[in-house]
User: Fold this.
Amino acid sequence: MPSIPSLPVSRPVRIDVAGAFLNADVTVPDDARGLVAFVHGSGSSRFSQRNRAVADGFVRAQLGTLLLDLLTEPEERTDAVTAEFRFDIPLLADRTIGVVDWIAASP
Assistant:
Protein backbone atom coordinates (compact mmCIF):
# COMPACT_ATOMS: atom_id res chain seq x y z
CA MET A 1 0.00 0.00 0.00
CA PRO A 2 1.55 3.36 -1.00
CA SER A 3 2.11 5.81 1.81
CA ILE A 4 0.54 9.24 1.81
CA PRO A 5 3.22 11.92 1.98
CA SER A 6 3.08 13.98 5.16
CA LEU A 7 2.23 17.66 4.94
CA PRO A 8 4.76 20.33 5.87
CA VAL A 9 4.44 21.65 9.40
CA SER A 10 2.33 24.75 9.86
CA ARG A 11 4.00 27.52 11.83
CA PRO A 12 2.41 30.41 13.71
CA VAL A 13 3.23 33.97 12.66
CA ARG A 14 2.22 37.38 14.01
CA ILE A 15 1.76 40.02 11.36
CA ASP A 16 1.97 43.71 12.27
CA VAL A 17 -0.68 45.50 10.23
CA ALA A 18 -1.16 49.17 11.06
CA GLY A 19 -0.20 48.63 14.70
CA ALA A 20 -2.40 45.56 15.19
CA PHE A 21 -0.68 42.22 15.63
CA LEU A 22 -2.69 39.58 13.79
CA ASN A 23 -2.27 35.88 14.44
CA ALA A 24 -1.85 33.51 11.53
CA ASP A 25 -0.63 30.05 10.61
CA VAL A 26 1.46 29.57 7.49
CA THR A 27 2.27 26.33 5.69
CA VAL A 28 4.56 26.37 2.66
CA PRO A 29 5.62 23.22 0.83
CA ASP A 30 9.22 23.18 -0.42
CA ASP A 31 8.17 23.52 -4.05
CA ALA A 32 5.18 25.82 -3.57
CA ARG A 33 3.77 27.37 -6.74
CA GLY A 34 1.89 30.13 -4.94
CA LEU A 35 0.09 31.04 -1.73
CA VAL A 36 -3.60 31.03 -0.79
CA ALA A 37 -4.62 33.40 2.01
CA PHE A 38 -7.65 32.64 4.17
CA VAL A 39 -8.71 35.78 6.05
CA HIS A 40 -11.25 35.48 8.85
CA GLY A 41 -13.21 38.35 10.35
CA SER A 42 -15.60 37.14 13.03
CA GLY A 43 -17.42 33.90 13.63
CA SER A 44 -14.76 31.75 12.00
CA SER A 45 -11.06 31.55 12.67
CA ARG A 46 -7.83 30.03 11.50
CA PHE A 47 -8.68 27.07 13.76
CA SER A 48 -11.81 26.11 11.76
CA GLN A 49 -11.59 22.41 10.92
CA ARG A 50 -13.30 23.01 7.58
CA ASN A 51 -10.86 25.76 6.58
CA ARG A 52 -7.90 23.66 7.70
CA ALA A 53 -9.12 20.72 5.60
CA VAL A 54 -9.40 22.98 2.55
CA ALA A 55 -5.96 24.44 3.28
CA ASP A 56 -4.49 20.93 3.48
CA GLY A 57 -5.89 20.27 0.00
CA PHE A 58 -4.12 23.35 -1.32
CA VAL A 59 -0.86 22.29 0.34
CA ARG A 60 -1.14 18.84 -1.27
CA ALA A 61 -1.53 20.69 -4.60
CA GLN A 62 1.80 22.47 -3.93
CA LEU A 63 0.28 25.77 -2.80
CA GLY A 64 1.26 27.45 0.44
CA THR A 65 -1.48 28.60 2.79
CA LEU A 66 -1.87 31.46 5.25
CA LEU A 67 -4.81 31.17 7.65
CA LEU A 68 -5.27 34.52 9.35
CA ASP A 69 -7.59 36.14 11.86
CA LEU A 70 -8.31 39.76 10.92
CA LEU A 71 -9.31 40.66 14.48
CA THR A 72 -6.95 40.70 17.43
CA GLU A 73 -7.83 38.45 20.36
CA PRO A 74 -9.25 41.36 22.43
CA GLU A 75 -11.28 42.57 19.41
CA GLU A 76 -12.64 39.05 18.87
CA ARG A 77 -13.75 38.85 22.51
CA THR A 78 -15.43 42.27 22.27
CA ASP A 79 -17.04 41.42 18.95
CA ALA A 80 -18.53 38.23 20.38
CA VAL A 81 -20.56 40.45 22.74
CA THR A 82 -21.07 43.70 20.82
CA ALA A 83 -20.66 42.72 17.11
CA GLU A 84 -18.86 46.04 16.64
CA PHE A 85 -15.99 44.76 14.48
CA ARG A 86 -17.55 42.11 12.23
CA PHE A 87 -19.08 44.68 9.88
CA ASP A 88 -16.33 47.28 10.11
CA ILE A 89 -15.54 46.87 6.43
CA PRO A 90 -12.92 49.67 6.26
CA LEU A 91 -11.00 48.06 9.17
CA LEU A 92 -11.21 44.55 7.70
CA ALA A 93 -10.32 45.78 4.21
CA ASP A 94 -7.32 47.80 5.45
CA ARG A 95 -6.03 44.79 7.34
CA THR A 96 -6.53 42.52 4.34
CA ILE A 97 -4.56 44.95 2.18
CA GLY A 98 -1.83 45.06 4.84
CA VAL A 99 -1.65 41.27 4.86
CA VAL A 100 -1.37 41.16 1.06
CA ASP A 101 1.47 43.70 1.29
CA TRP A 102 3.13 41.54 3.99
CA ILE A 103 2.85 38.48 1.73
CA ALA A 104 4.37 40.38 -1.20
CA ALA A 105 7.32 41.48 0.98
CA SER A 106 7.92 38.00 2.46
CA PRO A 107 10.45 35.61 0.93
Notes: Residues 89-105 form the longest helix (17 residues). The two ends are 37 Å apart (CA to CA).
